[in-house]
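Q: My labmate handed me this sequence with no annotations at all. I'd like to see what the chain might look like in three dimensions before we decide whether it's worth expressing. Could you predict it?
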Amino acid sequence: MTTDNYGLFVGLVTLDLIYLAESAPQNNQKLVAIDYTVAAGGPATNAAVAFSYLGNQATVLGVVGSHPITQLIRTDLDTYKVAIADLQPSTTTSVPVSSIIVTESTGERAVVCINAVKTQASISSLPPDILQNIDIVLIDGHQMAIGKALASMAKSQNIPIVIDGGSWKAGFEEVLPFVDYAICSSNFYPPNCHTTAEVFAYLSHFSIPHIAITHGEQPIEYLSCGDRGAVDVPQIPVVDTLGAGDIFHGAFCHYILQLTFTDALAQAAQVAAKACQFFGTRRWMEAQQ
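A: Here is what I predict for the chain of 289 residues:
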């Protein structure tokens, strides 16, 4: 199925080296993996892949550059029909590389990554026509200056803005006034917030109309135009939780363009649950082909 929807996914682009093992290694332990895979990663990037897979046109906006390992990223994203808008095409610095170990018995993951702290782009890198034909924008907070500028531009053009609130990042407070949908994890704690209720109150202060907080296999809590509630998520045998939140966000961007807020949350949870039943961040799509 294809649609005419175009999504722009702003933030982190990494190369993910993903291993399946019996457990994470202890100090001085050498571990033999059961399985491994390599894919482009990062919250915005994985969300773009899911959005594309569901029948849309996706572009990821981030720093990729011309280091030799970026060919692995370009090949992966080309496979899943995700376009790249490179904020620093001439840089020879390596993209961040994530090393991830997934525990076979639980599906839990351990991640080592430098994120985008060394690859921050300035707003002068923004292509002038980047929002042309765009129907929805997702911002993951890893390119905050770019995210803030784009959020302001998108708001002025009535393009809905979603944030992936995986964790609090300095500068998010400057993006939040423009946000339509704040989709956060239970690890998202703005300054001086220690409970879910305080997070809802903090985000509501910015007049964000739709807020959701995911809790893994527990129901999604939401506050939508003043209505408070919860959405159940599927209970499934978990193989790998890596990227589930990213995939959830990409699926949400797909469904929110056609469904109500709560229905979009429910459908996105179905997609993320499917992904959790496969190792890595791509095999859930291959299994359905």
